[in-house]
Amino acid sequence: MTTQCTHLSVLGHPPALAIYFPERHCRLYYRAREEFLSPIASPGSPLTTPTAPNPPIIRGAEEGAARCATSSKLALILDCLHWTSEGKCLEVTCVGFASCISVYLRGLIAEKVAMARSTSSEGIDIRFLERKVVSLESQIHDLKSRVISNERKAAAEKRRKEDSKFKQKFKQQRLAAWQPILTADTVLPAFFLIGLLFIPLGIALLFFSESVKEIQVDYTNCNSTDHKNDDSSPKPCQDVIDANPNESCSCTITFQLHESFPKNVYMYYGLDNFYQNHRRYVKSRDDKQLLGLKMTTPSTDCSPFDKNADGKFYAPCGAIANSMWNDTLQLYALNPTGEQEKVDLIGTDIAWASDKKIKFQNPPGSWNDSDPDFKFANTAKPYYWSKEVYQLDPDNPSNNGYENEDLIVWMRTAAFPNFRKLYRRIDHSKSGYKSGLPEGEYQLDVTYNYPVKMFSGRKRMILSSTSFLGGKNNFLGIAYITVGAICLLLGIIFLIIHIKFGKRASDHFNINQNTPYSE
Fold first, then answer.
1. In three state form, how does the secondary structure of 358-420 look?
2. What is the pLDDT of residue 119?
3. Same-domain check for residues 262 and 393
């Protein structure tokens, strides 16, 4: 709120100029004016404005002052831009802040000094007047600083009190909260409601999970078709690659589908007792490298799988990429005549779209390793890999290098030691497989490369259909049924106890000193 203390004609400004002060500073203005005029004006003389004619009253200036004035300013100068013939101001503007008193006093002292020089008989001490002006300006500046400081302190204190109130309530646990009164009338219906909702929901989840068709084929100990023991018996592939990790082994497993699998059918590979959730293992990767950024050195998180003996860094680096699953699985359908029919598998669209588009990108350059701008120049294949990263799928550049979906699927680490990852999709566009995977006898050909004997692991191939809830998972349905049954049982028990021993809540509220004691 501002108050018009006076209309002033300041030296160098038009007569229509007005000075506004915050209401609490009006006394400061009059005190300064009285103190300044006291050496010049005779005792008892009235306070006078400068000799310039009085300006008309500025109507609408209050609105302009309310828009322009701020609490941290000592004074506000308003000027009228547009006058009407009736003396009404139509448009108000801010001329300046803070120096209003100083401007007025300097104009007044200049006028009085000129009058004093023209009248030498009064003997005015000009230096004394100048020192007085400087002293008043200093006092005004100090007062302004104190006002601003006090306002800031008041605002800070207000914030501190608000914060302290919240902290006090929080520490004393007196924040606004809902504190229900648990009685039999509220608890028993809740138990029965949860039981009646969870049990049907669990049955539905279990039904949809059971509708998913799935078969698992463990090929950990499959026998090699090329290697024999000393007694001419087939040699297990895991013994072959355990003796020579660089040697490949092939094996064949036959299995039976007793019912047709509706589409869509997916092929997974499964690993047991492999801890992808180890902290150092999860960190052992370089996301900048996988984004395709040109780098001189890989991240230290990749160590010790960061570079080879020649100083070339691995592409990709880290323990996750180095341990990538590299078995090859191919499915064949066996006709009654014994002939094999290859089941076409699709190796794309098996990774998360966000990973494919955002997290994994190939570096710029050429795919030709003889070109100077080769994408993977001065890099080496990971230690346990049998091929370079740019040879993962050379026939499909969009599925090669860091963008290879087998690599992307493997790089998304599993939370548990027994896990499965998507390997391929059955091509349902081919004749005989458009409605799904028909029942019958099938053969799985395995190129056995991945060692599991060292960590007592097991490998398996999984064929599975899906439902709108995903793959086969009975846990969620069983959990809902279990929780619902427990709540229903507890509701029945508490209801019996309440009927036999309970009392109404009104009985507890009506207890007084005259209520007889009863066991």
1. HHCCCCCCECCCCCCCECCCCEECCCCCCCCHHHCCCCCHHHCHHHCHHHHHHHCCCCCCCEE
2. 52
3. yes
Between 118 and 16, name the one with better pLDDT. Answer: 118
Q: Copy the structure tokens of residue 119.
A: 């009248």
- Please state the rounded mean pLDDT for residues 468-497: 91
The answer on 356 and 492 residing in a single domain is no
For residues 381 and 411, membership in a common domain is answered with yes
Tell the burial category of 83 from Cβ atoms under 10 Å away from its Cβ (0-12, 13-18, 19+): middle
pLDDT (tens digit per residue) in 89-114 = 555 555 444 344 454 445 555 555 55
Given this model, what pLDDT does residue 138 score?
81
Q: Tell me which of 47 and 422 has the higher pLDDT.
A: 422
- Structure token digits, residue 430: 């081919």
The tokens of 469 are what? 């809830």
Count the residues in the chain: 519
Closest CA to 133 of 33, 11, 47, 215: 33
Is 187 found in the same domain as 143?
Answer: no
State how far the Cα of 166 lies from the Cα of 160, in Å rounded to an integer. 10
Residues 126 and 262 in one domain: no
Domain that holds residue 90: 2-147
CA-wise closest residue to 380 among 309, 444, 432, 320: 309
Q: Residue 113 region, left (φ>0) first, then alpha (ψ -120 to 50), else beta?
A: alpha
Is the full-model pTM beyond 0.70? no
> For 16-22, what is the mean pLDDT?
41
Q: Measured between alpha carbons, how far is 39 from 125 in angstroms, rounded to an integer? A: 9
Residue pLDDT, tens place only, 421-450: 999 999 999 888 998 999 999 999 999 999
Is residue 39 domain-shared with residue 96, that is, in the same domain? yes
Say which residue, 359 or 185, is predicted with more confidence: 359
DSSP letter string over 254-272? EEEESSPEESP-EEEEEEE
The burial of 314, by beta-carbon neighbours within 10 Å (0-12 exposed, 13-18 middle, 19 or more buried), is given as buried
